């Protein structure tokens, strides 16, 4: 693995130096004039007509080893060496003592919560601005996810809102580094320590992101990652847990391997503890070992381009780039997010903005919805098990407190661009900026 790294400060300096000359004249002097006449949505010429970088990218040099492994019939981790090899490499890359590979990010979270003692009837504080897996895994452990409001400026859990959601049942906090943006881990860990809570970082979108010099996923008790097909480190389906506590990691191994003894989980019988099968296969590990050859370089390119976009898009009224928490050394950018403030953009609705941006040849989406109102939540709360585990009073109070104004605001304002777009060139980033600026200049025609 190379040591090539760009600090956030370096990246900002590079981006600003590149754009200052044009910025000084006019905030929109970087627009290609030929394309500004009419939005493509209304029949004008598109800002961008060429393809964006594809994802995932396959490296053919990995094929010989994969074919040999397939021909050997040693497909599961018990039969071969590649899963263990990946675990060693990934722990090294993350700066963690240990890594356990799992079948997916969801299974990594399930294992982590179980070994940290999140049990039936417990409560877990969790970010609501996330993928469903972050709270589904809490339900799967028969605990109650308690959503803590999001700071819309950072897209992340607001640590100042955590304490008032803690009850005598709260056993853990599950912060999510959404889009690879580092959550404020010092404040989260401080609350955890004061209330004797465990911390599982959902770093499923945050490979190589850093907070105060440490990799995301290494700042709590355990950190979980996803390697699903769309992820910045992909293998179709796959996941991992990292941690520094050997006993905890032994328990993770044992649980993910049907409860068989492992390390400090002693052999009192063939299956001394409860367990499940959450194992990774050899082919997933081989693909990951190959994908890891590019991850650091890709992360540098994404970071540099994201900082360039931040510096330029923030010049356009109505576009608010994500505020980075103090201690953010680098974001991983699984998506590039920003907020769209309709009233500062001539009253154009976010839906129309997204449609118009897509028409300009810039793929984009609206980010997450109000996940705290998902149907699966009432389905769980009304289930036989939850009615046994929690009093009706507690469940009703949960419903009353499930009001998240910061998160609601973010779900109305967010716009996201795909990580693979950030692997493009500076001129590709200019296409994004030009398209947004063009829509601003033509805002009246879009209302
Ligand atoms: C924030 C977050 N948590 C958890 C997961 C679950 O990971 P997987 O899809 O590998 O099970 C994902 C995957 O999209 C995710 O984005």
List the helices and strands and how they pair.
Elements: H1 8-25, H2 63-72, H3 82-94, E1 98-102, H4 105-115, E2 123-126, H5 133-140, E3 144-147, E4 150-151, E5 156-157, E6 170-174, H6 185-194, E7 198-202, E8 210-211, E9 214-215, E10 222-226, E11 239-243, H7 246-256, H8 282-313, E12 319-321, E13 328-330, E14 335-340, H9 350-359, H10 375-381, H11 384-389, H12 392-401, H13 405-413, E15 414-418, H14 426-441
Parallel strand pairs: 2-3, 2-6, 6-7, 7-10
Antiparallel strand pairs: 1-11, 4-5, 8-9, 8-13, 10-11, 12-14, 14-15
Helix pairs in contact: 1-8, 2-8, 3-8, 4-5, 4-7, 8-14
Pyridoxal-5'-phosphate binds next to helix 4 and helix 5.
Protein model, in words:
The protein is an alpha/beta fold and 447 residues long. It is built from 14 helices and 15 strands. The strands form four sheets. The chain has a seven-stranded mixed beta sheet with strand order 1-11-10-7-6-2-3, sandwiched between helices. Helix 1 runs parallel beside helix 8, helix 2 packs antiparallel against helix 8 and helix 3 packs parallel to helix 8. The longest helix has 32 residues. The structure holds pyridoxal-5'-phosphate (PLP). Pyridoxal-5'-phosphate binds next to helix 4 and helix 5.
């Amino acid at each position: 693995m190379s040591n090539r790294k760009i600090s956030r400060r370096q990246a900002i300096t590079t981006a600003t130096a590149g754009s200052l000359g044009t910025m000084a004249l006019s905030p929109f002097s970087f627009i290609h004039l030929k394309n500004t006449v009419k939005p493509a949505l209304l029949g004008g010429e598109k800002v961008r007509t060429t393809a964006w970088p594809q994802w995932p990218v396959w490296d053919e040099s990995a094929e010989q080893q994969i074919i040999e492994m397939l021909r050997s019939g040693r497909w599961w981790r018990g039969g071969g060496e590649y899963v263990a090899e990946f675990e060693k490499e990934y722990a090294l890359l993350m700066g963690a003592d240990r890594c356990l590979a799992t079948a997916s990010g969801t299974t990594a979270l399930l294992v982590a919560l179980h070994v940290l003692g999140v049990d039936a009837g417990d409560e877990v504080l969790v970010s609501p601005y996330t993928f469903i897996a972050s709270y589904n895994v809490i339900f799967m452990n028969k605990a109650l996810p308690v959503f803590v409001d999001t700071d819309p400026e950072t897209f992340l859990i607001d640590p100042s809102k955590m304490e008032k959601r803690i009850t005598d049942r709260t056993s853990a906090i599950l912060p999510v580094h959404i889009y690879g943006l580092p959550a404020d881990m010092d404040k989260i860990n401080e609350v955890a320590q004061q209330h004797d809570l465990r911390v599982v970082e959902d770093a499923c979108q945050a490979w190589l992101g850093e907070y105060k010099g440490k990799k995301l996923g290494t700042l709590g008790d355990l950190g979980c990652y996803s390697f699903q097909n769309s992820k910045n480190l992909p293998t179709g389906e796959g996941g991992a847990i990292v941690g520094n506590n050997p006993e905890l990691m032994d328990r993770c191994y044992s649980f993910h391997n049907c409860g068989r003894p492992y390390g400090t989980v002693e052999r009192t019988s063939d299956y001394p503890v409860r367990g499940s099968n959450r194992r990774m296969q050899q082919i997933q590990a081989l693909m990951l070992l190959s994908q890891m050859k590019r991850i650091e370089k890709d992360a540098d390119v994404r970071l540099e381009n994201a900082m360039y976009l931040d510096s330029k898009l923030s010049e356009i009224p109505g576009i608010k780039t994500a505020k980075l928490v103090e201690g953010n050394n680098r974001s991983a950018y699984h998506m590039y997010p920003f907020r769209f403030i309709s009233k500062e953009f001539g009253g154009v609705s976010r839906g129309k903005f997204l449609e118009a941006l897509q028409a300009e040849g810039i793929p984009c989406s609206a980010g997450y919805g109000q996940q705290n109102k998902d149907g699966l939540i009432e389905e769980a709360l009304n289930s036989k098990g939850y009615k046994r585990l929690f009093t009706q009073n507690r469940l009703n109070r949960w419903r009353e407190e499930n009001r998240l104004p910061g998160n609601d605001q973010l779900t109305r304002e967010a716009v996201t661009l795909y990580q693979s777009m950030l692997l493009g060139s500076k001129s590709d980033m200019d296409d994004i900026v030009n398209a947004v600026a063009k829509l601003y200049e033509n805002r009246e025609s879009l209302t």
